[in-house]
Design brief:
The protein contains twelve helices and ten strands. It is α/β, with parallel strands linked by helices and about 250 residues long. It has one domain: EAL domain (TIM Barrel). One guanosine-5'-monophosphate (G) binds next to β6.
């Protein structure tokens, strides 16, 4: 199966949909927002974004796909999202560095009446280090619109801590690899502790990703982490389920 060829038809054939994964505050235990996660089902099978995003990134198809995601997520969540909740959307490196990204997003927010201060864009460390000067400028423009910025997969991308300070990001998302190792590896526990200290020092809030167990949860609480996302709270779910669900408190 050729992914690039398949992707050419994916939008027109309605093969994409979005799932939403709830995030909870560790202070209040309450739902604070959702991350939008792209899903592709084609020829009867499910293909993971891990397997197609990089293909779309290299072929350039990501610009069109990314635009579809933005439109879809902002329009379907606009009537649903409560005013104290946030919505996070992933941007690939190429999409993030796209020239017209800021005006495109600005126009979409206006047209769809989506409040900019409830939108968070997730950018990987790689997108930042691949062109640091441009990343600073792009983030600064997005923030002028009122949008928040999260650094995704934090801890995997070797971004320099000093340079992190220049970025004006709002949140760090600790990669699930480190969370998975909590209570298995002392080194990873120290690393998580260190990331939390660093974040506090820079006034960044922290979300731990891929939290699966109560043990991880209480460890993160003890370490002062702000929020979590993971199967222990909720799995990614289709919009119909977001509409119907009454969210449990952690
Ligand atoms: O939800 P899942 O584990 O399948 O996601 C796998 C990876 O795909 C994650 O790293 C996630 O950031 C990425 N991803 C999911 N949806 C999107 C999207 O809409 N755009 C981009 N660029 N990446 C996405
Ligand atoms: O964008 P990012 O790389 O952060 O994507 C998060 C990924 O983690 C998504 O693919 C999502 O489906 C996945 N995920 C969410 N919660 C859990 C969890 O508790 N455990 C594991 N293993 N994966 C998770
Ligand atoms: Mn993400
Ligand atoms: Na991540």
């Amino acid at each position: 199966y050729n992914i690039e060829t398949g992707l050419k038809r994916a939008i027109d054939q309605h093969e994409f949909h979005i799932q939403y994964q709830p995030q909870a505050s560790l202070k209040t235990g309450k739902l604070i927002g959702y991350e939008a996660l792209l899903r592709w089902q084609t020829a009867g099978q499910f293909i993971s974004p891990d397997d197609f995003i990089h293909v779309a990134e290299e072929s350039g198809q990501i610009e069109q796909i990314g635009l579809w995601v933005l439109k879809q997520v902002l329009s379907e969540m606009q009537p649903i999202l409560a005013s104290d909740q946030s919505l996070s959307i992933n941007l690939s490196p190429r999409q993030f560095h796209q020239n017209n990204l800021v005006p495109v997003i600005s126009n979409l927010l206006n047209k769809l009446h989506f409040p900019a201060n409830q939108l968070e864009l997730e950018i990987t460390e790689f997108a930042i280090v691949s062109n640091f000067e441009r990343a600073i400028a792009q983030i600064s423009e997005l923030k002028k619109l009122g949008i928040s910025i999260a650094i995704d997969d934090f801890g995997t991308g070797y971004s320099s801590l000093i340079r992190l300070r220049e970025l004006q990001a709002d949140r760090l998302k600790i990669d699930k690899h480190f969370i998975n190792q909590l209570n298995k590896s002392d080194k990873d526990e120290q690393l998580v502790e260190y990331i939390l200290m660093l974040a506090k020092n820079m006034n960044l809030s922290v979300v731990a990703e891929g939290v699966e167990t109560q043990v991880q949860l209480s460890k993160l609480r003890e370490l002062g982490c702000d929020a979590i996302q993971g199967y222990v709270y909720a799995h990614p779910m289709p919009i119909e389920k977001v509409l119907k669900s009454e969210h449990s408190v952690l």
